[in-house]
Amino acid sequence: MTAAVPERWWTRLVRPVREQRPTGRPRAEVRAEREAAREQRKAGLVARRIEAAAEKQAAQAERQRQAAGVARQQAEAQAAAARQAMAAFEGYVSVRDRLLAQRRPDDDLSAAEHQTRVDLDYLWRAQPADIAVLRHCGAALTGVRAASYDEPAPDLVARLKRDYRLLRRQAGTELCVPEPELLGGFGVCWDGGLVNEDSVRSFGVLVALQDAAVLPSCRGAERRLVWEVGGGWGGFACQFKTVCPNVTYLITARPELLLASATYLQAAFPSARVRVHEGDAVATWADWPRTDFVFATESSLSSLRPPAVDVVLDVLATEAMTPARAERHVQYATEFGARFVYTTQRTSPRTPGAAAAAAALERGFWLHPVPPRAEHLPPVGDGARPLPVEGAAYRHVVGWRRLRS
Amino acid sequence: MTATAAAPRVVFGVPAYNRPEALARTLESLLAQTDRDLAVVIVDDGPSPAVRAIVDSYAASDPRVSYEANPARLGMVANWQRAFARSRELFPSSPYFAWASDHDVWHPRWLEALVPALDDDPSIVMAYPHAVRMYPQERRRIDGTFDTASDTRPARRLYGSLNGLTAGNAIYGLFRASALERAGGFRAVLLPDRLLLSALSLLGGFRHVPEMLWYREASRDFSYQRQRDTFFAGRTPLHTYLPADVQHTAVLAWTFGVRGAGRPAFGRLAGLGYAAAFFWYSLRRERARWRMTLERAAPAAVGPRS
User: Fold this and answer.
1) Domains of chain B with bracketed CATH
2) How far is residue A75's CA from residue A208's CA, in Å, rounded to a whole number?
């Protein structure tokens, strides 16, 4: 039996330390263990820092790659636009050279046509930069300006939205062709496409043609020949040809107008087969079912002699003409054997050209206004001045040929 | 023109009566059809030099036009019957027939759009398009859709045609001539167009082509008395003073229950059943109509709908 060792006075002080230390382990070992744990923590920290740095670098690289991608896309888009513009310019030059030879001194122009001719005169000397924004020349014809769509006024947006949505609701999306982002195309971006007053007006005309049971005849398997008088800057032709690809689309107009529409349409349909009538009807109409566009100056109408025309379209073209020329166009429509005519007639007092065209049409065709689609339209704009509805200022009229005039 | 003439696919029967100012426009709209395989048979119930001159001027340059003047006025119903009968006499093998008034207008694509509807499906007995109502200063669309082409049950087609079809527009559709013959054509009753379409609905489907291809002149208000005055020459038949539904039920019972015109699709007994169903549907429709009229006149008297 051993005697109990008396507790020293200092043992009370060291007891907590002695209790924490593993019993029976040397101090050095414990210290080494702690050191190893510290090193491990340090290594982990370093590893995390390296990982974070690597992630940061990767993210930065990804950002750079994305930025490069966007820049590349932009560059590609710019390059494509530049190529498109260059191709359009080449098309322009080719058409211009052929039309230059057909320019005649105009002695029977209305005041509106004189103004248009002055406004479009620059096209005869256009540079690639002018052709790159060719679409802007439409302002001289329809009054719709690209600048109005840089920061469109709320009234304009509200009116456009109402008219556009109404047409889409009534006619579906089948006939809705957005403005192409081509040669300075502009508009408000809805449903993935550009919409402006010109495109909505053309949409309305297509819907009217559908309602008048004329459009379905142009969408069948049989090739049709459609003649648009005037043709504007080519916007309606672009929509029509998109909706009815199986048509040969003839545009007749004064040379400066033809220059704009032919250049625009060649750019919009790069693979289209295009002919410019230069006086030889046989050459112009040879293999016409495989031709997409035919352009002829107004002065060459007498030598045009097309095969039977199915539809004649007058989208506010004859109203700008002098009465004699408007009448002459209707006469040609009859001579060309047109089965259907379509004309947009303003409800406000008519111009002399429009009145003459209407009277001549009445003699050669059975005319029927296309009944408007009845729909309650919510007022847009302030209460005192509700904004006019697209199409309210004019009516769509379709006629078919009289067997006896 | 004789019955030996080559049979066109479509015959327009035009029961004309004293509308020379509009006849030229109508004739042109028929002759300008893009589907040119047609004949126009005009039966004139009020012959006049003006009408004759117009018809002769077109017939001279277009052999598809034929004309017959009734020796004495027949009245509208009999003239419609005569237009169909004369068309069958001249062109017994033409598969399709349409009545054309002497004042409405047919879009040039009318046949082009409607003939395929009948060609494509032998079970279709009538195809008709959207219409446009012509007023002196404006046009209004009539574009409600009614189509029973996919319905195989005669009773459902009958119910639908009674409640959803505007007979005055549909009667100017394109008919399968054999079905018209089986249905018995126009009958000497009030609302003969509704009766004929009801009978046809038992024989096959109606196809609605959603294009505005027929322009209808705005007509005067409807009245039974006006029908009695214009439908019949001379004395008005006594049975026309019975309710129209009773007249129609009797004719349907006779056509399908006694004559068995529904065979082989359905027999006489079923035909009688359909005539009874027609009467029942008509009563329900009339009840609803009266209720609506009363509701408008005196809402409190009718009380809430059950």
Assistant:
1) 7-102 (3.90.550.10)
2) 41
Tell me which chain B residues have a C-beta less than 8 angstroms from the C-beta of A404.
28
- Whether A196 contacts A202, CB under 8 Å: no
Q: Looking at chain A from residue 326 to 355, which residues have their Cβ under 8 Å from any Cβ of chain B?
A: 339-340
* Option in B32, B109, B134 nearest A213 (CB): B109
Domain ranges of chain A: 87-401
Q: Do A368 and B215 touch (CB under 8 A)?
A: yes
What is the CATH topology of the domain spanning A87-401? Rossmann fold (3.40.50)
Q: Where are the beta strands (DSSP E) in chain B?
A: 10-16, 38-44, 65-69, 96-99, 105-106, 124-134, 139-142, 174-176, 205-217
The answer to whether B221 faces chain A, any CB pair under 8 Å, is: no
Q: Which of residues 238-277 of B touch A (CB under 8 A)?
A: none
Query: Do B32 and A370 make contact, defined as CB atoms within 8 angstroms?
Result: no
Of A340, A371, A400, the CB nearest to B139: A371
pTM of the model: 0.82
Q: Is the peptide bond before B264 cis (omega within 30 degrees of 0)?
A: yes
Digit-coded pLDDT (tens) for B190-249:
899 999 999 999 999 999 999 999 999 887 677 777 888 888 887 888 888 888 899 999
Q: pLDDT tens digits for A226-273? A: 999 999 999 999 999 999 999 999 999 999 999 999 999 999 999 999
ipTM score of complex = 0.84
